[in-house]
Amino acid sequence: MSRPLRVATYNLKGLHLDEDAAREVVRELAPDVLGVTEPPRGLTGRWRLRAFARAVGLRVVVGGGGARTTALLVRPEARVEQGRARRLPVRPGRVRRGFCTAVVDGVTVAVVHLGLDAVERKAHLARVLTPVPPGTSVLVGDLNEQPGRPAWTTLGGVLRDAAEVAAHASGAPPEPTYPATDPRWRIDVVFVGPDVEVLAARVPAGPAVERASDHRPLVVDLRVPEPGAAHGRMGA
């Protein structure tokens, strides 16, 4: 038995541009799971993220603290286990980064926001993949690099690029996500494990999308095993 699951990834630019437009975009996406990169931070960051989640019909399961530039939001009725904010090592002068993991209705989900330095991306991605087992797993986020580069190659060795799978089925190329006003680069991703079926993928457009952030979101429709069926479990 399997069931549908809608997953999206969205770089919210700290909600600094047009928060009302960002809310409109996410409501239209209607995701079951939303991986957020660049959530609001600072003294009021957690409060603003919770308020945003409520406004779009979701709840925050991981955000703030060690999650740093990532957060994980899910629909209110979802069953969440092992939600964790995981810190990543930082070198002087670099942005402090982390990532989120959780098991959402039996699906292992990770949210990642890799940095601008290629060496750092490689080191961080190795740590990110450790708690993401093959099987019923989904990794979303902002890789800060384009297809064919090392992070994509590493991920492609253990997971599948959902947008590429959908593009192969439809005959249309995967859509770029950055920048929002005239996207040319595909840096926001959804990767899935072998037990996950990809049904469709799209990158929304329109005035609200262009106002809300400097990225466009990526939304992917999946089919996943029912909770309790065999799936990869998250490690410590």
From TrEMBL:
InterPro entries: Endo/exonu/phosph_ase_sf (IPR036691), Endo/exonuclease/phosphatase (IPR005135). One of its GO terms (molecular function) is catalytic activity. It comes from the Bacteria. Residues 8-215 form the Endonuclease/exonuclease/phosphatase domain. It holds the Pfam family Exo_endo_phos. This is Endonuclease/exonuclease/phosphatase domain-containing protein. It comes from Cellulomonas soli.
